[in-house]
Amino acid sequence: MSTPISDVLIIGGGVAGLTLALEIADYKSVTLVRPAQDDQGASRWAQGGIAAVLSPDDDIEAHINDTLIAGDGLCDTEAVRFTVTHGPAAIQWLIDQGVPFTPETDPAARYPYHLTREGGHNARRIIHADDATGRAVVDTLLNKVAQHPNIVQRNDLTVTGLLKDAQGACRGAYGSDTNHQWHSLTARHTVLATGGASGLYRHTTTPAPSSGEGMMMAAELGARLMNLEFQQFHPTCLFDPEGPAFLISEAVRGEGGHLLNEAGQRFMLALDNRAELAPRDVVARAIDAEIQRSALGHVWLDIRHLGEQAIHHHFPTILAHCASRGIDITQQAIPVVPAAHYSCGGVATDLQGATDVANLYAIGEIACTGLHGANRMASNSLLECLVFARSCAQALLNDARKTNAQKSDAQEPSSPCPIAAFQPSRKTTDLSSTVLSDIRQRMRATMSQHVSIVRSVAGLNTALEQLKALLTTLEEIEGAVATAEGSRLQHALQLAQLTVLAAQKRHESRGLHFATDWPQHQPLATASSLSISDLAHRD
Question: What was the pLDDT predicted at 405?
Fold first, then answer.
């Protein structure tokens, strides 16, 4: 089944996808594919806030410098400057949309909204909506999207691949609906906003994380993937093996929270002069080391000394959620562990979100813009979503103006080029979802054991062999990859292998990639680059 052509097809309904839709919908027809699981994805669960230079006491160069330091020599300076410079306007756009940011109550403050501080930042520059910023932003933008007459939402589809024409340009996407019927969605421009790849790991900070499926869809059309080895682990996820994932915001440490070991002692003081506010890679490795030395299986994050009033004021969502899990954070320290959180690598793009494939764009966590380098600094993620969604919108609108200028008023819009044939299998399968679930869990166990915070040559070799075996098992199951669930799992296993290959190629420790066999930096910092053809040599 095929749908009529749209000007722009956006796949993914987090902050990046919603922002783009709203920025272009007055001028272009938009189809927004936003599956139900997007409400459990990374954007809605972002707690801390958005980093931007907003206070008169802060400045652009300071934010740029902090970002470059956190990125450990691998940031693209142009991308950093572009993002930071456009940050204040992006925040003002959100304010104009009605996002309810937390106001500043101090009459002496020089900015009307409360700004907090997080790891790696040398100033208070994190604007937030209490401790549920992502939810506030998504809900506000989603309400605007629902009211816009030029945006068609598709909540019933799971996109599993992209369409291309005879020249290799992207012409839309295809996927399966809730009744297992296949659909193609044609479009002049396609934008991927499908999130990162933290779902490759067992422990994550979001209930329904992506596993890099969008990255592999782009790679299948010829897009380059960069810096896949730099998977960020948030230092503090609630430790509760029996319950769902829940992030404990970095703002908790920004407001003065202490990390304690099994003996109840602060351990970050001896490791880094920034203590609990060191960049995430430093803190995550320190926590991981403490966990290995103890029998607890976690460390403690203590904010009792802040007092009940401050805790209720700054962290109402965390307070309520922990209470629902039997933890009173005004009286008890919070048990925390590192968990897969953010993919610094992804689909290589320029400053407008354009990929190597004509008519295909990527924005948000799926993209590798060069902003984060080897380690994302806290709260630069939603900033990147906003800035690059808005710059992508300008590129699409400028393209439309150029196209219109080349046409006579009487001309009809040009028809799409012929789309390469897509024929999803009509073969039905009795494949049990438990079989696919088992393969996925084994993939996550392998990645968590061998390709997480600390890596080794031997562990990466083992991981690659195990992942290859799992992919072979999947592909040998008749009809498996012809289903939406099987196709997504195939993409996840492929991306997991490429992540290992990227890690194997980096003979150093840098940022989020810490290798026991290569503990030092190489003199020259270089980005990694892979394509789908690298999988052809996996044997």
Answer: 55
Q: At what angle do helices 77-85 and 60-70 cross, to 10 degrees?
A: 140
Q: What is the pLDDT of residue 243?
A: 81
**How far is residue 297 CA from its own chain's centroid?**
26
At 421 the pLDDT is: 55
Which of 338, 363, 383 is a domain's end point? 338
Catalytic residue of the set 124, 135, 188, 280: 280
CA distance linking residue 209 with residue 42, whole number of Å: 7
- Low-confidence residues of the chain, pLDDT below 70? 1-4, 37-42, 45, 47, 400-431, 537-539
What CATH number does residue 478 fall under? Answer: 1.20.58.100
Q: Please list, in sequence order, all residues whose beta carbon lies within 8 angstroms of the beta carbon of residue 392, skipping any fewer than 6 positions away.
A: 20, 191, 352, 353, 354, 361, 363
Q: What is the pLDDT of residue 45?
A: 63
Co-location of 332 and 352 in the same domain: no
As a three-state string, the secondary structure of 154-213 is ECCEEEEEEEEECCCCEEEEEEEECCCCEEEEEEEEEEECCCCCHHHCCCECCCCCCCCH
Which residues does residue 455 pair with via DSSP β-bridges, in sequence order? 515
Strand bridging mode 170-177 / 157-164: antiparallel
444 is catalytic: no
Q: Please say whether the beta carbons of 235 and 287 come within 8 A.
A: yes
Residues 366 and 504 grouped into a single domain: no
Rounded CA gap, 495 and 486, in Å?
Answer: 14
C-alpha count within 13 angstroms, C-beta hemisphere, residue 299: 30
Dist. CA 84–CA 66, nearest whole Å:
11
pLDDT given for residue 478 in this prediction: 87
